[in-house]
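Structure tokens please, single chain.
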Amino acid sequence: MEGFFRSYLSLYRPLITKLNELMSTYQLSYSLWQVIFYIKNYGPSTLVDISNQYNVEKPTITRRVHRLEDLQIVKQIPGKDRREKIIQLTDLGEEIYQKCREKITELEHNVMEGIDKEEQTITFQTLPKIKENILK
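Here you go.
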């Protein structure tokens, strides 16, 4: 299926731009949202957990977490090991997560407008399989 990657990548950039616009009210970007989303869905987490999830270097996640700490969206809590940094959402972080989640859900509905449920389901099931194949 020649042209698939070109087609996918032509979708990716405008989507990230739109997400960044949605979250700019909270001084967030999609890359910061990824950290918030991970912590919200997996609970208090280490920098290594988050970096492994997104296949991003730990120093990159560290910079994102520092920015989120500056915004008072996340905070560090003590771990078993003094060297291990565990990050969790603050009350403000929980509130911002909910507001952004609503905006993102609305965007998801708008983006899928005119695409029947069967096509949406197939796409939703296919994308993780493509990711798995790329990571092999």
